[in-house]
Specification:
Number of strands: 23
Number of domains: 2
CATH class of the largest domain: Alpha Beta
Bound molecules: pyridoxal-5'-phosphate
Shape: globular
Strand content: 15-25%
Largest sheet: 10 strands, mixed
Helix content: 40-55%
Distance between the termini: 32 Å
Length: about 725
């Protein structure tokens, strides 16, 4: 392979007078590079053939490396953007951490999740080039660590970009910084380690970029913003702003106010969530303890912000909401919004929520900062690599131009009434389903129901994503089947794939609950040839590639307003699954493009959720009024299922019916949306098999152009980075 990558080709130093963008992200969920790189080089089929001549199946490479240096959508987005930037010939470079262990490997033990370390380098790391000579020292209050960059080539058709990941070295305690993605943070020590990671990434990247600038342009920093944009992928790398100010003021004696102005022309911030528990706030005392210089800078910045707000006559409440210092904490989001040239949400509705609620005061004073860039996914991995048959179908009817210019995929819409094309499309889906079934047989030892509808909900396990609601919906269907009320029900497989954060008790309870339901259905001869649940183990990028190609229905059922965008929804759409989901995140833009009539939308919309919160929402009254729903929910406590006495199910039941000190009962409005959800699933079941259903799938697939991350990165380049 090395012949393809001369040692110095991946780190293209930006031309002296050309602007580059740097994408700082605590996660890069890269996945397997082997097939992707062969495809980008245009030799995948040749290599497949050569290996076959030697009696080697190219899928043998599935056994090695699947760099999971991320945990879900945010990290996968970063990886898609790297791919698209290289493909679109844009000078965009990733900066992250080279974790020794990526996201844990998941195992089920009696239906409970167990976590094993992900030793992704056990077969070596053929892609990275260590740049020892570019190492730098990163200073903490209790000592220095060495940051050693590793460059991974990101191959595009006409360009190779580098993804640079920093590894911490120097001592045993130094190496801990880049040991684990998301170290357990239920102790102070764990939280401090996380803060160390954030600063390590921030200081490694900023140190390098400032040094590079000074080498080329000297100590006049006035052109920094003209030549360099730094994108903060969520708040994890926000300390980069403070580090930038520290270097300019302390090492180059730039006056503080001027340094702030320069920083505001360099940094931009992408928000990924409005969930209050996910908005980072660092206790002042942690920052002070670990990073005293940075702490001073942040306090100076906070004081300047406060002075400016006072001078500008900003009323008290607005000041309070926007302040960098929030009591004993530093708000990373407020720091980011204050310092960013542009702040973006990741789907149209999400950006509106940022403007109208989360960051409403900031939007009022600086509306020009706020822009939307709807997420995208790379069609090279999420269509061309995982669904080659569908691609050949497109080639046959519209030629191959769409492969370089994905917007041309829309030309296929002209064939939406063509029986031959729809037949070809259905045949491809059928073949992908057989392939998926074979893969699941190999991985899980489970035989999928033949000729079944495949519904899939694959994504991180989180209450707001409402896997629990899907579980209840399946239970309702199960009970109706048992009562013989659904005589025409078509065999249906529900695929789940999800990892729970190791310390997230409720999420782990939901995994166990779904596995219990799966077992019950599987053991019930009355229904097991009609209904099946498979919770695949260790859902990751490689698994996702197979599932999106082989599914009929994409379940995207988050509580309206809470899924910032979603990208899984886009992968499924691209591969011709209909969306069964709520009006949330990018689902809204998906149905805007593919037609609401071609998808299965249900549930409360954002306005209704707000109204229910305002007027009072009573899940218990809804349960009392709906016997079907009650029966499903009560299986948590009526002895139908057991959780080995660990208290998971009682806790889930209480979360729905009693609430807790920090939330009201059924915080995610499952009882509001569940009845409509069941109706939608059954409607799909009834329509499946008709040509009209195939057409819906087809229209989704060929309307997916907008959801290419090529479009997204071009929007960043134009609206934010000014490349
Ligand atoms: C795309 C992807 C995600 C994000 O899925 P959402 O449904 O948008 O939450 C998470 N994990 C993996 C492995 C993915 O490929």
């Amino acid at each position: 392979m090395w012949a393809f990558f001369p040692r110095n080709s991946v780190s293209i130093p930006p031309a002296a007078d050309k602007k580059s963008a740097y994408y700082l992200s605590i996660e890069f969920l890269i996945g397997r590079m082997f097939y992707n790189n062969l495809m980008e080089l245009g030799v995948l089929e040749d290599v497949r053939g050569l290996l076959a001549e030697k009696g080697v199946d190219i899928s043998a490479f599935e056994e090695i490396e699947d760099a999971a240096l991320g945990n879900g959508g945010l990290g996968r987005l970063a990886a898609c953007y790297m791919d698209s930037a290289a493909a679109c010939d844009l000078p965009v470079y990733g900066r992250g951490i080279r974790y020794r262990y990526g996201l844990f490997k998941q195992k089920f033990e009696d239906g409970f999740q167990e976590e094993l370390p992900d030793d992704w380098q056990s077969f070596g790391d053929p892609w990275s080039i260590r740049r020892e000579s570019e190492s730098r020292r990163i200073r903490f209050a209790d000592g220095e660590v060495l940051s050693v960059p590793y460059d991974m080539p990101i191959i595009g058709k006409n360009r190779v970009n580098a993804l640079r990941l920093y590894q911490a070295e120097g001592s045993e305690s130094a190496a801990k910084i880049s040991e684990y993605l998301y170290p357990a943070d239920d102790t102070e020590e764990g939280k401090l380690l996380r803060l160390r990671q954030e600063y390590f990434l921030s200081a490694s990247a900023v140190g390098e970029l400032v040094e590079g600038y000074v080498k080329r342009h000297g100590k006049d920093f006035s052109r920094f913003g003209e030549l360099c944009a730094i994108q903060l992928n969520d708040t994890h790398p926000v300390l980069a702003v403070a580090e930038f100010l520290r270097i300019l003021t302390e090492e180059y004696f730039v006056p503080f106010g001027r340094a702030v102005g320069i920083a505001q022309s360099v940094f931009h911030y992408t928000n990924h969530t409005i969930l209050p528990e996910a908005l980072e706030c660092w206790p002042k005392k942690y920052i002070e303890k670990l990073l005293p210089d940075i702490y001073d800078i942040l306090l100076r910045l906070a004081a300047k912000q406060y002075r400016d707000m006072k001078k500008g006559g900003v009323p008290k409440e607005d000041c309070a909401a926007m302040r960098i210092v929030q009591g004993k904490n530093i708000s990373m989001a407020n720091t980011a919004v204050y310092m960013a040239g542009k702040v973006n949400g990741v789907a149209a509705i999400h950006t509106e929520i940022l403007k109208n609620s989360l960051f409403a005061p900031a939007y009022r004073y600086t509306p020009e900062k706020f822009v939307n860039v709807t997420n995208g996914v790379t069609q090279r991995r999420w269509l061309m690599l995982c669904d080659p048959e569908l691609c050949r179908l497109y080639d046959k009817y519209i030629g191959e131009g769409w492969r370089d210019n994905f917007s041309e995929i829309g030309k296929m819409r002209a064939f939406a009434a063509d029986a031959e094309v729809l037949g070809g499309f259905a045949a491809v889906k059928g073949e992908n389903k057989r392939r998926l079934a074979a893969y699941i047989r190999g991985r899980e030892g489970i035989e999928l129901l033949p000729n079944a509808i495949v519904y899939a909900q694959v994504k991180r396990l989180h209450e707001y994503k409402r896997q629990l609601m899907t579980a209840f919906a399946i239970l309702e269907i199960y009970f109706r089947l048992k009562r013989g009320e659904l005589p025409d029900f078509r065999p249906s497989v529900f695929l789940f794939g999800a990892k729970s954060a190791p310390s997230y008790f409720r999420a782990k309870g939901i995994i166990k609950f779904i596995n219990e339901i799966a077992k019950k259905i599987d053991g019930d001869p009355d229904v097991r040839d009609k209904l099946q649940i498979v919770f695949v183990c260790n859902y990751d990028v490689s698994y996702a590639e197979k599932i999106v190609a082989g599914s009929d229905v994409s379940l995207q059922v988050s509580t309206a307003g809470l899924e910032a965008s979603g990208t899984g929804n886009m992968k499924f759409m691209m591969n011709g699954a209909v969306t069964c989901g709520t009006m949330d995140g990018a689902n809204i833009e998906i149905v805007e493009r593919a037609g609401r009539e071609n998808n299965y939308i249900f549930g409360a919309e954002v306005e209704e959720i707000a109204r229910l919160k305002e007027e009072g929402y009573d899940p218990n009254a809804r349960l009392a009024a709906d016997g079907e729903m009650r029966r499903a929910v009560q299986t948590l406590t009526d002895g139908t299922f057991g959780d080995g006495g660990r208290g998971y199910f009682k806790d889930l039941y209480d979360s729905l019916t009693v609430g807790a000190s920090w939330h009201k009962p059924d915080h995610y409005f499952i009882m509001r949306d569940l009845p409509e959800y069941v109706d939608r699933l059954l409607e799909i079941n009834a329509e499946y098999g008709a040509q009209s259903f195939v057409r819906k799938q087809f229209i989704n697939a060929v309307s997916a152009a907008y959801f290419s991350s090529d479009r997204s990165v071009r929007e960043y380049a134009e609206k934010i980075w000014n490349l």
